[in-house]
Structure formats: structure tokens, C-alpha cells
Amino acid sequence: MKILFMGTPDFAVDTLQTLLSSSHQVIGVVTQPDKPKGRSGKMQFSPVKEVAVNAGIPIYQPQKVQDEAFLHTVRSLGADVIVVVAFGQILSKEILDTPQYGCLNVHASLLPKLRGAAPIQWSVIQGEKESGVTIMQMDEGLDTGDILLVKKCVLEPKETGGSLFEKLAKFGGPMILKVLEQLEQGTVQPVPQREEEHTYARMLSKANGQLDFHKPAAELERLIRGLNPWPSAYCFVKGKLLKVWEADVIDREEAADPGTVVAVGRDDFIVQTGEGCLRILSVQLEGKKRMECGAFLRGFSLAAGDCLTAEREACNE
Description:
The chain contains 10 helices and 18 strands. By secondary structure, the protein is α/β, with parallel strands linked by helices. The chain has a 7-stranded mixed sheet with strand order 5-2-1-6-7-9-10. Strands 12, 13, 14, 15, 16, 17 and 18 form a 7-stranded antiparallel sheet that branches. It is elongated and about 65 Å long.
């Protein structure tokens, strides 16, 4: 088949590379426009664009895929199918209807659960027992199209957003090849989504990482894992931002307000939450590198009775 690939972040790279090494022909790659990076403002390619450049594939970077000029480009390419993986823009009905086999989406959840922009992180944050990848025939809705293929995986007890990302990114390539084969053979069996079972994985921002210690320890521990490595969970201590990378739940209660440090050991410290305690194991103090808690405690004065807060100003009261 002649394939037009649409994708942008790291998650889409494995699927694109699988298609490039297959018998199919990737006739073009559509990805988000280059963006300035860091203080230098130097323009940065998306991970998908980097692969396409190295492979010598035509690259298209429309500001808006709804523009008539881009629609004309899609039609002129004559793709048999469009494969979409975390592209970042909503496709119009005109684009969805252009290829013979329509548009296929590689989505990192077990649809209809966790439709939307951040299903991997929310799987961990919400304490899901399993996750996976769904190949979907795209329609005009947000991740509402018919299911063509599903592959599941079990979440490990200490699964992070990053570790689940790595697992699921490898699912897409083999799955899309299987669906393309079924389409060619006419054996694909679309399954409508059960609308009453859908949930939504809203887009994440840095603000989602704010640790509110009035919440239960189990909930906070899942948030820490789900937002590792991005956008990361954080709090404030003595006026400084402290990212928390790893923690354990302790089933005990202390006579202390939520956020209070109730014990400091050699390699960890324990914080009271709204329900249970958190043992903090790995952190990153503002302006420093990530480190194990033992190294942090050797360079930062922390004692029982000190307070971790959700906002910087609260630390200075």
C-alpha cells in the first residue's frame, strides 16, 4: 500500500520505522511545525521529522490540516491509507474520506477507555490494572471510531508513565502491519465502541504535577509514577521547588498535619498525607540534578516537623 504517515512525538517513531522497513511504501510524512527549543530559541525538529529526514521521505508541516492547500496536497499524493500516531491535530472529514482505506489511528489505550491526549499517564495515575494499544478506524469524533485491533498489557506495581510509554510504543508497528494485511484481504472486522464505557484522558500540563498532601498517599504515589518523566510531580520545601521522582506508600498515621515531615532517615524521609504516609526515595531540588534521597539529605537540612507544601508562598509563612 501507499501510506501517508501522520505523527509527531517519540511514541510515533517505532510505528513509522516499522512501516519503512515493510513492503509498504511510505509516500510522505506529515508532522507538526518545528518549534523553538530552550533559551536559544533554536528551531527543533519533531522526532518523527528526524526519522523522515534520515529516510529521505517528503515532509509536510501544515499549521492547520484543515487548510484547503493542504487538503489539495493530500489528494494529490494518492495514498491508499493514512496512518496516524499522536499527530496533534484533528483531521477534517475531507481528509478522513480521501484514502481508499480511510485513516487508521494507533491509540495508546484500551478504547473506549481513556480517549484523548494523555492516555498513558492517566492509566498509571488512575490505577488501571491493564493498558494497551488500539488500532481504530478514524471518524469525525475524538477517538470514537470502530476498533480494528487491540493488544493488552498488564501494568507493573511500580509502572511509570515512562516505562509504560516504552512498552506501548513497540506495539503499534506490528499491529498496524496486521491491520493493513487484513484490509488488503478484506478480512478486517470493525467493532463499534461501547459509548457508555468511555472515559477521557485530558491533556497534561506542569500544573498537574502539584502534590496536594491532603490527598491519600496511594493517590499521590500513583501521580508521582504517572508523571515520571514528564511533567513530573512536585512540591515546595523551605521555599524551594522539590520534584519527587519515587515514593512508597506506608500504611500508618501520625498526629501531624498533611505535608508534615514525620521522620527523616539516612536514605529517605516520611511525609504525612490525608490518608497514610509517603516514604520519599528520589527527588530533585530546584537547580540540582535528580538524586537518591540519601544524597539529597546529606546536602539539605530537613528535620521532623518541617513542612512540604503545594505552593511556594505557603513555605514562607
